[in-house]
Design goal:
Blueprint: H1 16-23, H2 27-35, H3 42-55, H4 62-68, E1 73-78, H5 84-100, E2 103-108, H6 114-126, E3 131-135, E4 154-157, E5 167-170, H7 172-185, E6 192-195, H8 201-216, E7 224-226, H9 231-242, E8 249-252, H10 255-267, E9 277-279, E10 296-298, H11 301-318, E11 325-327, E12 330-332
Parallel strand pairs: 1-2, 1-3, 3-4, 4-5, 5-11, 6-7, 6-8, 8-9
Antiparallel strand pairs: 10-12
């Protein structure tokens, strides 16, 4: 037959059924051995492993699981990749995972609905991960919305303790208290607040702590102006506050809204910090370059991400129980705050 007429039948990869036939077991037993889930006699397990190696069968992550007893893979579900804090946290998770010898399977979600979360967990279950880190806003979902695979280690970041899973987060209340007390100790009679969005746990906790701190110091609690974390929303709130002559101190729930407030104050002829002091939250890389350089609360996103990953790996490898941890904040004093001029 001429060479040009010859055809080659593509080689079919071995299936789970092929392994079951070669090992003389059921496909369900092969699945149990491959995933490490369920009880299988050691002699049967070895027979299945030998059949897999002989046939070259490699299900998702199974080869690694057979060798190490786990998949060396961590799933990460994140509800926003656009925020400064989430990107810093993800970078720390990835760096620590690489150091520990784990790969990451990232699933970003645009909307926090029951169907989207369920789909993310189903995908990670197919990819055979050893554990999951969820970066979530507490007010976005209820307990009934989260249906996780049983027995899978879970760590939640940026949330409160109403979920039945360990939480690793910045101490939001401590940060807001440091910001508010700093302004009160400078001699300001009260502190106005530009809050983050209502659905955000971080914004909610900072707002509550700001209010509690004012009450603890016997200071008046002004009305709250809310934004959406953006500099534009901070500018809108700042324009309202700049028109109020009794406003001498502002605590913005993040640095971006503080930037917008600074611009509004400048445009309205209110000097910072001579007329109005401003404190932000996050300590973004640019906050030291604001006009004037911004006093702010430093979040240690790298520590939060690394701690979440280390805790998860410790549970996976040594079966240590996961615990809830809060990472302390730090007040960074720059030129945007001073004692009131009058």
């Amino acid at each position: 037959m001429p060479d040009e007429l010859m055809t080659t039948t593509p080689r079919r990869d071995p299936s789970m059924a092929d392994v079951a036939l070669a090992a003389g077991v059921s496909a369900q037993t092969v699945s149990r051995v491959a995933t490490g889930k369920g009880v299988v006699k050691e002699s049967t397990r070895q027979r299945v492993v030998d059949a897999m190696q002989e046939l070259g069968y490699r299900p998702n992550g199974a080869a690694r699981a057979l060798k190490f007893g786990r998949y060396r893979s961590i799933g990460v579900i994140m509800f926003s990749l656009s925020s400064y804090g989430n990107m810093r946290t993800l970078d720390a998770i990835a760096s620590e995972a690489s150091h520990a010898g784990y790969s990451l399977n990232l699933i970003p979600l645009r909307t926090a609905t029951r169907s989207s979360v369920s789909g993310a967990f189903a995908h990670l279950n197919e990819e055979a991960v050893d554990g999951i880190i969820i970066v979530i806003e507490a007010h976005r979902l209820t307990d009934s919305d989260i249906d996780l695979p049983p027995g899978l280690p879970i760590v939640v970041i940026d949330s409160d303790d109403r979920y039945h899973y360990p939480v690793v987060d910045t101490d939001q209340a401590q940060g807001a208290r440091l910001a508010t007390e700093h302004l009160l100790q400078l001699g300001h009679q009260t502190v106005w607040h530009i809050a983050g969005p209502e659905e955000s746990y971080s914004a909610h906790r900072r707002r509550l702590s700001w209010e509690e701190t004012l009450r603890d110091h016997g200071a008046e609690v002004p009305i709250v102006l809310s934004g959406d974390w953006s500099a534009r929303s901070g500018h809108r709130a700042g324009m309202r506050l700049a028109a109020m002559p009794d406003v001498t101190a502002i605590f913005a729930a993040n640095d971006q809204m503080a930037l917008g407030a600074l611009n509004a104050l400048h445009s309205m002829g209110r000097r910072v910090p001579e007329d109005v002091s401003v404190v932000g939250f996050d300590d973004t890389a640019e906050s030291a370059e604001y006009w004037p350089p911004l006093t702010t609360i430093r979040q240690h996103f790298d520590e939060v991400g690394a701690l979440a990953l280390k805790s998860l790996v410790a549970t996976i490898e040594r079966r240590q129980p996961l615990q809830t941890d809060l990472v302390s904040t730090e007040l960074i004093v720059r030129a945007s705050t001073a004692a009131p001029s009058r």
